[in-house]
Every structure is written in structure tokens, then in C-alpha cells.
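stage 2 :: seqdesign
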């Protein structure tokens, strides 16, 4: 029977055949199921194609192929049959990188174009001389154990050894006899992906792939180990497919968030460390200097926040975890400010393309106050993994809403800052202090954010006060009447926790009641039902007291007052639960009242016929300053789950649990920003002008910002999202179809404008 080497998934989600096929080559000993976590994650128009070699999976009864040429010829023949009218992307992991490369060479030699070759955690052909000897089952067993391919105890079972080791041995033989050094380079756009925790393939080894293409080669790091494609599928897919989503024909389906920037009908790929062939390098340098499509000039009205926000959203600054590529975004801002006569500066970080941007409007005459910093972050979280109904990087407006990744967090705020400031500049306003707009590059993740810049460039930012993301403007229950505006004066802080449930690995024909996955699920369900005590801190009390006066809902007002007046924990908890239940934004108000748990990932399993011996999950516990002690909460959670799972604190590299908890206690002890400043009062006056009758109050922020490094220097930091939001908008922050109101953005910009007006010279 002639069983095909290729299996296509996900075409049913497209309106007809996919126009891009993503062909995936598995690592040593594995087959298509190793990409199970990729299923359903590809953008509209793309389909997953799994290479299913003989000797494993559905072809377990066939003899494995141990010759690279035979393997590559067979796959290339089937790819050619599928390629007509479609783009082809090849992705190989570990050994699969070599297989993908050889298939790519064969396709190119026969005139079949390959859009991109992606190699993940794999050594380059030059590392293989083809002089390997015999490979035994003991060698295969040692490899499987050393790389973590499977549990050592599983290999002790003869039944599993018979299934698992032959394909491992076959692939080891294939690599041992592969004379890659004599292969020629391919003319193909190449992505070389390095897993930062990979103990087997170093960054230097991955970088050697640049010698194996005569076109451009982009080297990208991702979080994870040798099997990062399973541990971090979103990061690996982002690195591989960044920039390949079709710009033409607006789709109502998901687009790959960490990589599509639509520019003049062309989708650009903005990588991290890019090594280019000589002809491509000149064009790349031109783009990096602001003269090419990599940094689109802004040609709209810079005092229109909607036009600015659209332009910012279209600059894809997705942060895969180690920092975003923000240089094109910074070049665009540079052009906007310099056209208005405002001095700018771009400060590079050690990561190529990852930059901070500054624009400074100087004070008039003698300076009475230190500068006001308008601090925004240009990086955004990726837009992958969940289905968007609108393209996340086109800045689409529809139904009075502006959609796109970063619309809420926080390019809408950045647009309000820039538009309000430049309106003053256009009008010739002179301020009593310098006003500095700072676009940070690594707020979401990465090592080169605000703390790095303040440490490495200690004299560059002398802040008197900082305005950044934070407080909200909420409506009454009618959804249209503004009710309360907040300026946040402190953040919550979080601790990353990991759960591991363990039993033993076995054959799927012999399941048992104590399986690790079941145990993990039971523990997660119990933790999901856990509720910390209601403990509003000083800022939360200030906010809820004002909310009780502002709301038109008498039941909510009564519940708030009862909570604030409660003398016992039981009464406070009952009233607090009623406040959350009656709120139009229950998730927001719940987070302002207690310690919360947010579950972010779970993983288990590595082979379709194996019940795994371990299952893990990670979650974040977020704490209010002045609320629960982190050490006590960790102890309480451990007591709750008992011996059904192990709970560990995930700190920074080299940190013990005690050190991580103590570091968090230090963050939580940083005092609130004072309300007694001219900036705070200017904000209150601005709200009175733009939202008459709305109460303007200090508040506790429910999330984390870049405030702590400033607060450690006793600089007041205030947070604002100056536009009205509702529950749906708040739920879509870092989620799908992120959006804000167009008119709300304009009104919020007016609030920022009026705030700055309160800082005019002589005001």
C-alpha cells in the first residue's frame, strides 16, 4: 500500500484551499503528532502539512528510511504535487531542519519556489560530515534519555522500547551518514530559530545557518528548550511565520499576530537579528535608516489621535518575549515630531532593532519643575493562538470602534499623548517644565525596558512626575453616561507559580484513575474556585468610596458602603462579593479588592500512545500593596492542594523561593504616589472640563506597569487610560479583537490636552 508522506490539516477553516502550505518536519524519532499544539493556530489562508515518515505513527509497520536522499526525494515529490498555485513554507525542528533544507534544495532545483525555510533548534548542514558509523539501540536509548525525548522509566518497558527506539535509531543513522558539508547553499529566505534554554543546540550553532542561504537569513530567539515547538508553540510560530500573512483580500479570520505589518499592499517581516546577503543588506540598511518601507512615514494630521493610533497599530511591534522590534515605529514618530520642530532621540538597546524613543518639548525660561514624562510602551503582545475577526495590524475602524493589537494597551494612549502635546506645540504653548514623550520598547516582556534605561543611562531621564497607562473612565449602567474617572497611583504585583502533578507513564491501553493529567485537572479546578479574602487597600478604599457617590445604582452603592464599613472579615467578604456581582465591570473591581489567580498555561504528554507521567501548569498570583503577604498565600495554596501536586515559585534565574518572595515584598512596600502634586490636580481639573459632573479620584491599578523604578526614586507615577471603556473592551485587553471607541479616544485626548494646559508657563 502506498501511504502518502504528507497529511494536510486545517484546510477546512479556509474558504476553499489554503493559499499557503506550512510543511512541518519533526525532530529525531518523532512524527506529525509532535506538532499537535500547532493545530488550529495558523492564520486564515494557511494550512498545516505534516510529514509522516515510515516506521512511526500511522506508518509504524513500515521500514524506516535511513538515507537522507531517499527521504528528501520522497517528500519533495509529494510537495511538488501540492505546490501549484500555492506558497510553500518549510519548517524543520532539530533533525527536521536538515530534512527541510534538503527538501527545499530539491524543490528549488526543479523550479518550485519556496517562500521561506525555517529551521528550529537545529544544527546546520556544515556540522555533518557523513562519516558516522553503526548506530545501536543502546545509542538510541541514550539519546532519548539525554534529550528528554521520553521518560527513562518508560524505556525500561520492553513494549515501549520496541515502539519508540527504532524510529530514533533510524533518524540517528540518517544523520550519521548525512554528508551535509558538501551540499550547496540554497537561494531561499531563511529563518533560523534558537531556543534560549536549549542545552543541545547553541546559539552559535544556529547562527551557522546563515552560511547555507544566498538570500536573507534572520536569526530569532524564542523561549524554551530543545523542544520549544511543543513548549512554546506561539513563540515558534511567530518567529517562523512573521510577515507572511497576505495583505490582499481582507480576511475576517485570524492573522498571525507576531508578524504582519501591512504596508502599501506588501506584508513586511521585521525580524530581530538579521543577516542578509549583500544585495538585500543595502535595502535593509535603507529601511532601517527611515528611507524604506520598513519605517513608513506618517502623512496624516499629527494632532488627530485616531489617525495616529491607526498608524501606530500598523507598525507591528509584537513582543515575542525577549523584546520587540521598535525601530520602524520609532522612525515614524521621529518624523512626526521633527516635522513639528520637536527634538528627538532614539536610544538603541543591545538587541538589534529594539530601541527607546524620546521627544522633548523644552520649558519656557527658568525651569521651576523637573520634566513631566509621558511614558508609553510601543511593544504589544502577540496576536496569535486565538481567532480574530479583524486583522490585528491594520487599524480597522468599524461601528465607531478602532480595532487592532495595541488599540487599548497602549497605542491608543500613546496617540492621545502625542496628539495632545503636538496640538500645544502647534499653538505655540510654553510649559513651566520640559514635557518628554518616551516610547519604551520592552514593557510587555524583555530585559531592556525602563529599568534598564534608567540604570544604563542614569542622567538621561530626570523625572518630576510620570504619566503612563493605568486608570479607567467608566460609564453608568446605561453604557453611555460617564460615571467616574481614575488616576492610578500604584500597581498590583504578581508572582509566577508552577504546578506539577505526577504519577507514572504507561501504555494508553492500560489507563488508571490516578493519571497525572487528571490529577492536574482536579487541582486546577480546586484552585479555580479558591477566593482570597476581600482586603481593599487605601487606594481601593478611596476609589470605592467615590464609586458609591458616583453610581446611579442604589444597590451597588449600598453594597460598597457596607463593604467599606464592615468590622469583620466575614461581613466584608459578603459585601465585597455583592459589589463584584453588581458591578458592570466585575473582573476589574474583583482585581482591585483581593489577591487573584490567573492561569496561563498547561502542558502534558509527548506521544499519542503514552499516558504521561507528569503534567504541569503555570499561573500568576497578583497581590495588592498593603494586602495579603505573598509567602502566606503560597503556604495557603500548598495546604489547599495537599500532596496531589507540587507547587513551586518561579523566580528570576538563580533566585531561591525565599528570594523571589522577598523581592515581591519589596515591590509591594513601595509607597503610593502622592495626590498632592500639580500634575494630579491638573488631571482633576482636566476631567472636570471634559467630563462635567464626573468624579475624578485616585485609584489602585489592577495590573503591572513600569512605575516601580520611578517610585523607588520617590518620583510620583500616575496611570491613565483617558477614554471611556466598557466590560467587553476590558476583557479584550491582551485578547482577541482588541478595540476602543473612536470618539472616546478623541475625548480622552482632549483630557490629556487640558491636563497639559494646566502646566503652561505662568498658569
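stage 2 :: out
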Amino acid at each position: 500500500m502506498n501511504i502518502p508522506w504528507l497529511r494536510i490539516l486545517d484546510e477546512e477553516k479556509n474558504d476553499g484551499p489554503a493559499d499557503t502550505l506550512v510543511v512541518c518536519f519533526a525532530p529525531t524519532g518523532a512524527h506529525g503528532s509532535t506538532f499537535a499544539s500547532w493545530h488550529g493556530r495558523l492564520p486564515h489562508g494557511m494550512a498545516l502539512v505534516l510529514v509522516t515518515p515510515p516506521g512511526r505513527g500511522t506508518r509504524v509497520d513500515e521500514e524506516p528510511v535511513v538515507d537522507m536522499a531517499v527521504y528528501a526525494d520522497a517528500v519533495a515529490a509529494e510537495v511538488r504535487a501540492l505546490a501549484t498555485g500555492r506558497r510553500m513554507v518549510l519548517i524543520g525542528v532539530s533533525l527536521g531542519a536538515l530534512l527541510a533544507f534538503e527538501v527545499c534544495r530539491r524543490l528549488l532545483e526543479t523550479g518550485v519556489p519556496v517562500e521561506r525555510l525555517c529551521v528550529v533548534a537545529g544544527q546546520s548542514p556544515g556540522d555533518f560530515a557523513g562519516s558516522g558509523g553503526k548506530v545501536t539501540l543502546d545509542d538510541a536509548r541514550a539519546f532519548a534519555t539525554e534529550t528528554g525525548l521520553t521518560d527513562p522509566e518508560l524505556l525500561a518497558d520492553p513494549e515501549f522500547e520496541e515502539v519508540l527506539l527504532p524510529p530514533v535509531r533510524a533518524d540517528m543513522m540518517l544523520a550519521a551518514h548525512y554528508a551535509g558539508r558538501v551540499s550547496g547553499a540554497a537561494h531561499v529566505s531563511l529563518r533560523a530559530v534558537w531556543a534560549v534554554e536549549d542545552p543541545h543546540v547553541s546559539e552559535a550553532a544556529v547562527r551557522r545557518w546563515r552560511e547555507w542561504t544566498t538570500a536573507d537569513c534572520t536569526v530569532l530567539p524564542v523561549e524554551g528548550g530543545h523542544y520549544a515547538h511543543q513548549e512554546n508553540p506561539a513563540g515558534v510560530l511567530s518567529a517562523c511565520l512573521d510577515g507572511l500573512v497576505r495583505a490582499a483580500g481582507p480576511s475576517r479570520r485570524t492573522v498571525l499576530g507576531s508578524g504582519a505589518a501591512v504596508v502599501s499592499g506588501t506584508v513586511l517581516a521585521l525580524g530581530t537579528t538579521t543577516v542578509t546577503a549583500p544585495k538585500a543588506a543595502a535595502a535593509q540598511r535603507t529601511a532601517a535608516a527611515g528611507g524604506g518601507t520598513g519605517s513608513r512615514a506618517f502623512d496624516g494630521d499629527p494632532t488627530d489621535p485616531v489617525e495616529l493610533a491607526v498608524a501606530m497599530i500598523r507598525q507591528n511591534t509584537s513582543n515575542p518575549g525577549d523584546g520587540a522590534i521598535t525601530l520602524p515605529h520609532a522612525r515614524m514618530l521621529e518624523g512626526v515630531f521633527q516635522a513639528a520642530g520637536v527634538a528627538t532621540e532614539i536610544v538603541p538597546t543591545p538587541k538589534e532593532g529594539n530601541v527607546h524613543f524620546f521627544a522633548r518639548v523644552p520649558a519656557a525660561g527658568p525651569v521651576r519643575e523637573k520634566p513631566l514624562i509621558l511614558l508609553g510602551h510601543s511593544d504589544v503582545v502577540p496576536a496569535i493562538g486565538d481567532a480574530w475577526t479583524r486583522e490585528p495590524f491594520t487599524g480597522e475602524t468599524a461601528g465607531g470602534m478602532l480595532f487592532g493589537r495595541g488599540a487599548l494597551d497602549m497605542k491608543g494612549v500613546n496617540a492621545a499623548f502625542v496628539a495632545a502635546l503636538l496640538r500645544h506645540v502647534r499653538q505655540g504653548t510654553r510649559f513651566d517644565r520640559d514635557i518628554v514623550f518616551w516610547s519604551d520598547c520592552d514593557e510587555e516582556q524583555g530585559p531592556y525596558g525602563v529599568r534598564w534605561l534608567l540604570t544604563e543611562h542614569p542622567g538621561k531621564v530626570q523625572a518630576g512626575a510620570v504619566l503612563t497607562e493605568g486608570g479607567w473612565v467608566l460609564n453608568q449602567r446605561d453604557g453611555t453616561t460617564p460615571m467616574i474617572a481614575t488616576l492610578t497611583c500604584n500597581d498590583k504585583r504578581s508572582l509566577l507559580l508552577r504546578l506539577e502533578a505526577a504519577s507514572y507513564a504507561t501504555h494508553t491501553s492500560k489507563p488508571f484513575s490516578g493519571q497525572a493529567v487528571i490529577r492536574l485537572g482536579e487541582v486546577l479546578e480546586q484552585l479555580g474556585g479558591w477566593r482570597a479574602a476581600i482586603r481593599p487597600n487605601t487606594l481601593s478604599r478611596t476609589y470605592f468610596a467615590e464609586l458609591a457617590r458616583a453610581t446611579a445604582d442604589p444597590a451597588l452603592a449600598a453594597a460598597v458602603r457596607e463593604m467599606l464599613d464592615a468590622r469583620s472579615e466575614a461581613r466584608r467578604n459578603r459585601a465585597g462579593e455583592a459589589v463584584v456581582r453588581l458591578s458592570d465591570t466585575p473582573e476589574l473591581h474583583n482585581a482591585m479588592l483581593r489577591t487573584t489567580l490567573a492561569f496561563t498555561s498547561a502542558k502534558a504528554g509527548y506521544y499519542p500512545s503514552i499516558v504521561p507521567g507528569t503534567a504541569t501548569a503555570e499561573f500568576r498570583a497578583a497581590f495588592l500593596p498593603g494586602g495579603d503577604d505573598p509567602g502566606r498565600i503560597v503556604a495557603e495554596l500548598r495546604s489547599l492542594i495537599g500532596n496531589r501536586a507540587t507547587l513551586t515559585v518561579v523566580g528570576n534565574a538563580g533566585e531561591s523561593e525565599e528570594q523571589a518572595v522577598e523581592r515581591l515584598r519589596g515591590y509591594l512596600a513601595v509607597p503610593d504616589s502622592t495626590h498632592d502634586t500639580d500634575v494630579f490636580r491638573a488631571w482633576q481639573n482636566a476631567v472636570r472640563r471634559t467630563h462635567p459632573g464626573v468624579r475624578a479620584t485616585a485609584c489602585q491599578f489592577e495590573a503591572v506597569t513600569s512605575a516601580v523604578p520611578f517610585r523607588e526614586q520617590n518620583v510620583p507615577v500616575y496611570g491613565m487610560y483617558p477614554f471611556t471603556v466598557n466590560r467587553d473592551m476590558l476583557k479584550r485587553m491582551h485578547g482577541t479583537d482588541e478595540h476602543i471607541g473612536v470618539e472616546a479616544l478623541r475625548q480622552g485626548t482632549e483630557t490629556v490636552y487640558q491636563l497639559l494646559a494646566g502646566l503652561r508657563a505662568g498658569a
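stage 3 :: structure notes
- The longest strand covers residues 465-475.
- The chain has 24 helices and 27 strands.
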